[in-house]
Amino acid sequence: MDMFDNLSLGRILADDTEDNTPACPFPKGRFPEDTPLAMAYVPFQMWEKPYEADVGLSRGTIFPSIDKPFIGEEAVKNAHTK
Predict the structure, then answer these.
(1) Superkingdom of the source (predicted)?
(2) pTM of the full predicted structure?
(3) Is-contact 10 17, C-beta < 8 A?
(4) Considering the domain boundaries, does residue 1 fall inside one?
């Protein structure tokens, strides 16, 4: 039984098509099939060589793949001076 079978929208979409297949199928992606609705899900992170402790402390993470610096005001300030 699909987790969306009990939803009204799923039944409406199925009734609107001649061949009785959903007009707007729910995507199949990286989520496990039994993921409950409205439940937070964090994808698996592949292991990688972490930063050294001092670099990780200054960057806010020890993982290079999630090192996404926030530049916020710096970007706005720099845009006004150019």
Answers:
(1) Bacteria
(2) 0.39
(3) no
(4) no
